[in-house]
From TrEMBL:
GO MF terms held by the record: lyase activity
Source organism, top-level taxon: Bacteria
Membrane-spanning intervals of the chain: none
Coiled coil spans: none
Identification of the protein by name: Acetoacetate decarboxylase
Gene3D superfamilies, alphabetized: Acetoacetate decarboxylase-like
One family name in Pfam for this protein: ADC
């Protein structure tokens, strides 16, 4: 557990302060939209079986985010979204695999939004020879090694320009659906993925897909709102 003994990790969890939503975050990051084979999304995306049966589409998203400020303090994050699934009758994007560098983010991410965050270490090098290199490491092993670059005009963007149904996220945790829609604004530039190595035992191997779009987002401000939390099944006697 990256140098954390299990007992120490459990003890740390118990000491993490409760930081309820909403959260306000700032930072920079990359967004990759990748068209993936259905077999990879069904079998290697780390989706819960109940969600996998409702998954639609084969456009997946990979994000690396470097949060400069957050309610839990600065941290880094790498995540994968394998398309949309059904959450209490609503189609929502869902995060099926996510690593962060902060224990507080792990604990409060689960409490607030049902996000299944795990811990890893990050080695990030910005701008070396015009290339940003992102490495994620767990148990001493690098499981994602990603080289990215960016160019072109820096353009403004707001989440409000995108219909809510395309921004809505859902998570399944302990028999509950957590549904929430982040909002934000920032600046983006076109990006390119130069190369990547992925260990599929730790993270979905997005190199098996075809990159459709990539951008680098800077100076963003985001708000993660209070989630709408609903049971996955409603007893008919209570309807």
């Amino acid at each position: 557990m990256d140098g954390w003994h299990v007992a120490e990790y459990v003890g740390r969890q118990a000491q993490v302060p409760v930081l309820p939503a909403p959260w306000r975050l700032t930072g920079t990051g990359y967004l990759l939209a990748i068209r993936m084979p259905d077999a990879v999304l069904d079998e290697q995306a780390f989706l819960d079986d109940a969600l996998r049966l409702t998954r639609e589409g084969n456009l997946a998203y990979v994000m690396f985010v470097d949060y400069h400020t957050a309610d839990c303090g600065p941290y880094r994050e790498l995540l994968f979204m394998p398309g949309s699934c059904d959450f209490s009758g609503q189609r929502c994007l869902t995060i099926s695999k996510i690593y962060v560098s902060s224990l507080s983010s792990i604990v409060n991410g689960a409490r607030n939004w049902g996000i299944p965050k795990e811990h890893c270490d990050f080695d990030v090098q910005y701008g070396k020879d015009g290339i940003d290199r992102i490495r994620a490491r767990k148990n001493g092993k690098v499981f994602v090694d990603l080289h990215l670059t960016h160019s072109g005009l820096r353009l403004p963007a707001k989440s409000s320009w995108i219909p809510e149904r395309f921004r809505r996220l859902g998570q399944l945790r302990h028999g509950m659906h957590f549904i929430y829609t982040p909002k934000g604004r920032g600046n983006f530039r076109r990006a390119a993925m130069l190369c990547a190595e992925v260990d599929a035992a730790y993270f979905p191997d997005f190199t098996q897909g075809k990159l459709q779009f990539a951008c680098r987002v800077t100076d963003f401000e985001m708000i993660f709102p209070v989630a709408d939390i609903q049971p996955t099944h409603i007893d008919s006697d209570l309807e």
